[in-house]
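F.,

This is the one I mentioned.
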């Protein structure tokens, strides 16, 4: 297959997946459009684009789409809560100039959609479709954090460079240069600026802060008095050439910037908008992975992927009730909700697994992925930097990363893909097999107890087996050895060694959780508290909760040798005494004693020091391994504990 044929086929798939198969409803937002109830009787003087609204509305209805119209003329009319209900299946046709608010309302709406947790599709329908509009939209959606550190030029430097910065090359907005700054953080004008600074005898180390200052001045001029978001900068891509379909993709939102047809035009306006949206999607060219995710989301939006009516019979539904309610007490509601929490979570996991398995074999998803991947691989391998083989070149082609873009395969790409395949964000209500904890001193631990032992219970304590994880500074030569846990997202990946490189064994310990396995949520932080079951931790548990101390084995042996069975009886009797107060330190605490229910730990005053570590240690819950990887390390822990030392003899 010729490459051009493949590209056309891929563009067809993008247009179909993001537009034809996705859109089921449309919302028209224009201050000159009457709403649906007013459309038939609206006065010409009240709304200037009644006919345009009718044409677009009629087209959407003809496509079988549910359509609504809003005319937000005042800033207070913009209902962002309504937009929160929009999904990938909802097309938003947005006017750029919304009444008294001008462009500000539209820019605020677009930023709101960009930071949402789901994909949104927008047509910005405007008479001002231009590179400037595209850059303005891209900047508003992206946001701009304040300059910090070395990028902040001093007042003295700005004064010295005043003449240089007044040069037309740096005072007039360079659209292509600003696009590079917004999308890739590049400053193409830095060479010219460096030369100008050199001519003005300004030290060259000042070129970076001044180059960034130039971009920020352009942004300030472009945005006028619009207040940009400064809390986060979102990744953005855009096409600003007025001769080609213009678009902006930022965060969770794709915007096609479409010029309004003249009022005198006889074209079908709805068809025109629909076609321009398709053209923008084709020019966008998302990579194959975004396309597959789009197909999955389309299947989910159909809400028939699980075909539950085919298998959720009355008999099964009755049986599921027995599964959730394991006792008569549970059925009468006399037990704590925590007693059915584990069963409910298992049932939800089973339902989700049904959906997952059906999605994995969904015909449209599978055919899109397999057909396009096969078609791409049938083309000749392209060109790439020296040293990159066919595998790396193909990876670039599938990701749509150009050959001239620098890629750090070992330190960036491999950790990123391994983190994606191995771990996920922690979202549960209790820790389980494969949960990763971060303790004091930047220590990391992996829960390596079976999940059936970690179901929530009303009363503690729970003993959790932990595997020590050691943070590594650089990526390993091989991830496939199965020794590492990789966590995080693309820009913040952490590699932790779980299996010792030489002895090929894990390092295990026990965590005592006084109040069970439920986590605490403090804002965005997720925590759990307990004691590491070493000497200090067990002593602290004994001090706080009054567990009896276990006999000191060495002292017991010495007593038996000295006094016979009478000495043994004396030592054992002493071991049954309650643990001493916090002022003294018992030697050992019996783990068996921890099976008793615990009282609430004492409350510590803000100005009171922790007495000998009596209060439990707080651990941050930072990640969750996927089931297959969690099971792999659970088995490694079990194998380590079941080793048998056989007395073979070597020469």
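My design for it:
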């Amino acid at each position: 297959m010729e490459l051009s044929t493949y590209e056309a086929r891929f563009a067809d798939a993008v247009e179909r997946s993001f537009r034809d198969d996705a859109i089921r409803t449309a919302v028209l937002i224009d201050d000159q459009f009457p709403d649906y109830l007013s459309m038939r009787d609206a006065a010409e003087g009240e709304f200037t684009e009644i006919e345009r609204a009718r044409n677009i509305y009629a087209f959407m209805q003809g496509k079988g789409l549910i359509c609504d119209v809003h005319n937000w003329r005042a800033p207070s009319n913009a209902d962002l809560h309504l937009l929160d209900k929009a999904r990938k299946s909802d097309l938003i046709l947005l006017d750029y100039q919304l009444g008294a608010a001008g462009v500000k309302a539209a820019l605020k709406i677009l930023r709101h959609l960009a930071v949402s947790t789901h994909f949104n599709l927008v047509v910005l329908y405007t008479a001002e479709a231009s590179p400037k509009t595209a850059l303005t939209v891209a900047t508003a959606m992206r946001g701009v954090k304040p300059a910090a550190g070395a990028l902040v030029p001093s007042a003295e430097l700005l004064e010295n460079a005043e003449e240089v910065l007044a040069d037309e090359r740096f005072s007039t907005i360079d659209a292509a240069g600003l696009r590079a700054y917004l999308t890739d953080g590049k400053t193409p004008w830095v060479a010219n600026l460096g030369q100008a600074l050199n001519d003005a005898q300004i030290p060259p180390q000042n070129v970076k802060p001044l180059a960034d200052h130039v971009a920020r001045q352009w942004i300030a001029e472009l945005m006028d008095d619009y207040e940009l978001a400064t809390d986060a900068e979102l990744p953005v891509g855009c096409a600003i050439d007025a001769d080609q379909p213009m678009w902006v993709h930022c965060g969770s939102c794709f915007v096609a910037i479409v010029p309004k047809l003249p009022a005198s035009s006889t074209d079908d306006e709805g068809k025109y908008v629909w076609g321009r949206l398709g053209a923008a999607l084709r020019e966008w060219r998302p990579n194959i992975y975004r396309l597959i995710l789009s197909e999955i989301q389309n299947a989910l939006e159909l809400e028939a992927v699980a075909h539950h009516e085919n298998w959720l019979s009355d008999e099964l539904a009755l049986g599921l009730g027995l599964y959730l309610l394991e006792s008569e007490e549970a059925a009468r509601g006399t037990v704590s909700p925590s007693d059915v929490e584990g069963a409910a979570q298992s049932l939800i996991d089973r339902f989700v697994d049904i959906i997952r398995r059906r999605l994995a074999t969904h015909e449209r998803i599978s055919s899109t992925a397999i057909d396009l991947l096969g078609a791409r691989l049938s083309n000749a391998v392209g060109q790439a930097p020296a040293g990159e083989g066919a595998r790396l070149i193909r990876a670039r082609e599938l990701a749509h990363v150009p050959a001239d873009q620098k890629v750090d395969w070992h330190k960036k790409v491999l950790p990123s893909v391994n983190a994606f395949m191995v771990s996920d964000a922690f979202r549960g209500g209790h820790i389980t097999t494969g949960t990763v904890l971060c303790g004091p001193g930047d220590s990391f631990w992996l829960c390596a107890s079976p999940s059936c032992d970690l179901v929530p219970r009303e009363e503690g304590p729970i003993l959790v087996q932990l595997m020590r994880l050691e943070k590594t500074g650089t990526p390993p030569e091989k991830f496939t050895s199965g020794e590492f846990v990789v966590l995080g997202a693309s820009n913040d990946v952490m590699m932790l060694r779980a299996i010792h490189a030489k002895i090929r064994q894990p390092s295990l310990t026990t965590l005592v959780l006084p109040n069970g396995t439920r986590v605490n949520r403090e804002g965005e932080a997720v925590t759990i508290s307990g004691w590491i079951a070493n000497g200090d931790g067990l002593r602290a548990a004994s001090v706080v909760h009054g567990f009896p101390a276990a006999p000191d084995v060495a002292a017991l042996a010495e007593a038996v040798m000295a006094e016979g069975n009478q000495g043994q009886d004396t030592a054992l009797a002493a071991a049954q005494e309650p643990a001493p107060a916090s002022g003294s330190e018992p030697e050992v605490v019996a783990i068996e004693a921890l099976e008793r229910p615990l009282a609430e730990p004492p409350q510590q005053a803000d100005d009171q020091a922790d007495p000998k570590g009596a209060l439990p240690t707080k651990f941050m819950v930072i990640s969750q391994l996927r089931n297959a990887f969690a099971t792999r390390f659970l088995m490694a822990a079990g194998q380590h504990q079941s080793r048998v030392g056989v007395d073979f003899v070597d020469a």
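Residues 95 and 525 are 40 Å apart (CA to CA).

Talk soon.
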